[in-house]
C-alpha cells in the first residue's frame, strides 16, 4: 500500500467520486445524492488520494452517540490492498476520539466482499432488514461497539 492522503471531500471531487461509484456499484448513487451529502450538516465526507488521484471515499453521518456509515468505496484497481481498512480505521479512530458508542451500517445480503470486510474490521451482524433495498433485496445491519456503558 502506498502512503495515501485522507482529506475532506470538496465540490470539485464529485465527478471523480461518481466515476468510482459507477464502477463499483450496480445501483450507484446519483450526482444529486452526492451533492446532498456534501451539503448535509453533521456529515463526515472524506476522500483518499494517491498522488492527487482520488482512489476512494467514505461518508458517515454523525449522531449523538454514533456514526452511521452511509457509503464507502475503493476504486476497482485499488481494492484488496488495505485502503478500505485505512478509510474505515480513520472513522473508527475519530468516533473513539469523540466518545461515540458505536458505528452502524447497512449492507446488501449479496455483497459478500463488503460483509467479509466489515466482519474483519470487527463489525457484528445485528439484524436482517427485510426489503431494505427497494423491496428487491434484503439488507443486514452491522454494528461496531466502541465504548460500552
Ligand atoms: C468493501 C471495500 C470498501 C473494501 O475495501 P478494500 O480496500 O478492498 O479492502 P482492504 O484491502 O482494506 O481489506 C481489509 C480486510 O477486509 C477483508 N477483505 C477485503 N476484501 C475482501 C474480499 N474480496 N474477500 C474476503 N475478504 C476481504 C480482508 O480480510 C482484509 O483484511 P486483510 O488485508 O488482513 O486480509 C471495497 O472492496 C469496495 O469498494 N467494494 C465495492 C463497494 C462496496 O461494496 N462498498 C460497501 C457498500 S456497503
State the gist of this model.
The protein has 149 residues and is α+β, with helices and mostly antiparallel strands. The protein contains 4 helices and 7 strands, in the order E-H-H-E-E-E-H-E-H-E-E.
Textual characterization of the structure:
The protein has helices spanning 14-24, 31-39, 83-97, 112-120, and strands spanning 5-8, 43-50, 53-62, 66-74, 102-108, 124-133, 137-145. A hairpin with a 3-residue loop joins strand 6 and strand 7. The mean pLDDT is 96. The chain has a seven-stranded mixed beta sheet with strand order 1-2-3-4-5-7-6, with helices on both faces. It has one domain: 3-Layer(aba) Sandwich (Aminopeptidase). By secondary structure, the protein is an alpha+beta fold. It binds coenzyme A. Residues 24, 72-74, 79-85, 107, 111, 113-114, 116-117, 120 line the site of coenzyme A.
Q: Which of globular, elongated, flat, extended, rod-shaped describes the shape?
A: globular
Task: Estimate what percentage of residues fall within beta strands.
Answer: 35-45%
Spell out the CATH superfamily: Gcn5-related N-acetyltransferase (GNAT)
Low-confidence parts lasting 5 or more residues at pLDDT below 50?
none
Given the helix and strand composition, which structural class is it? alpha+beta
What would the CATH topology be? Aminopeptidase
Number of domains: 1
Amino acid at each position: 500500500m502506498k502512503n495515501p492522503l485522507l482529506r475532506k471531500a470538496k465540490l470539485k471531487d464529485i465527478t471523480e467520486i461518481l466515476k468510482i461509484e459507477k464502477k463499483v456499484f450496480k445501483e450507484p448513487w446519483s450526482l444529486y445524492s452526492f451533492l446532498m451529502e456534501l451539503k448535509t450538516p453533521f456529515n463526515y465526507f472524506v476522500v483518499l488520494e494517491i498522488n492527487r488521484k482520488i482512489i476512494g471515499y467514505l461518508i458517515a453521518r454523525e449522531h449523538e452517540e454514533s456514526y452511521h456509515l452511509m457509503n464507502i468505496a475503493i476504486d476497482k484497481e485499488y481494492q484488496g490492498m488495505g485502503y478500505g481498512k485505512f478509510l474505515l480505521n480513520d472513522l473508527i479512530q475519530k468516533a473513539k476520539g469523540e466518545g461515540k458508542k458505536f458505528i452502524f451500517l447497512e449492507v446488501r445480503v449479496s455483497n459478500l466482499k463488503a460483509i467479509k470486510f466489515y466482519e474483519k474490521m470487527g463489525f457484528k451482524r445485528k439484524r436482517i432488514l427485510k426489503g431494505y433495498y427497494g423491496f428487491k433485496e434484503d439488507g443486514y445491519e452491522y454494528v461496531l461497539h466502541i465504548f460500552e456503558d
